Amino acid sequence: MSTILSIENLRKFYDGGFEALKGVSLDIAEGEILALLGPNGAGKTTLISTVCGITTPSSGRVTVGGHDIQSDFRAARQMIGLVPQEIALEPFEKVMNTVRFSRGLFGHRRDDARMEEILRKLSLWEKRNAAIRELSGGMKRRVLIAKALAHEPRVLFLDEPTAGVDVELRKDMWDIVAELKRAGVTIILTTHYIEEAEAIADRVGVINNGELLLVQDKASLMAQMGQKQIEVMLVERIDAIPDALSSYELALNGAGDSLIYTYDVHGERTGITALLNDVAQAGLTLRDVSTRQSSLEEIFVSLVSEDAA
């Protein structure tokens, strides 16, 4: 796939010397979904704002579809849709007019059929003639999404699009994301719901303190950095791990009826067979055994913790 968004050594300084972005470089392919993860204040929103032309970079270069965001701003910005964190809408304007205006702002002709399609997908069609001030917070969030899609962007930024909204909207949002991906739209999202990033993203980027710690294919990231755990469930509870099992660095769960063993999936030997034999030799009776892979959230927390150390 060809690169649609290219970020080269992007830096952003503010008065007082604070550096919000520290040489961020990133290429994003057309049609991919990139999840950008990071704690509050990591630089996620600053990066998005800079690419979208809301914030002026201190140095570096960004191109969208080959258009420089500074020297060819109009063409670059026309390719971008943005769903911001904050809800900023004209309270007395009607929903339909709000979305139509956003389309016209980018030089597109009126297309009522397209507007109806977007509003129906976002469950806003019945509210098309309602004033923005009459809508709930979740409905206003839907209007922001409709505005971002109105001019048919090729790159869509979703900055915490489902934070604090209802479950129904979250489901609608991810259904739309999946459909846009099928249509070849590139999507960059930030989210605190890491399980959503894990479910829909092609690649994951982790940013902290203005630095991009890594950008990697989600599956390979989890395979390389994740660990697996085996939980050995016991028939009877125990108060402590037997001395005979001390070499395995096991953990005993709070209820005292399960042993947790963590192992490297890439190790030459997992030690599981020997562990199970030694558990039996220690006089413990197995009730069941299960395994699980480290989640993306655990990997993310580990990366950010290492960066802060």
From TrEMBL:
It holds the Pfam family ABC_tran. Keywords: ATP-binding, Nucleotide-binding, Transport. The keyword ATP-binding applies. Residues 5-234 form the ABC transporter domain. InterPro entries: AAA+_ATPase, ABC_transporter-like_ATP-bd, ABC_transporter-like_CS, ABC_transporter_ATP-binding, P-loop_NTPase. GO terms for molecular function: ATP binding; ATP hydrolysis activity. This is ABC-2 type transport system ATP-binding protein. It comes from Cribrihabitans marinus.
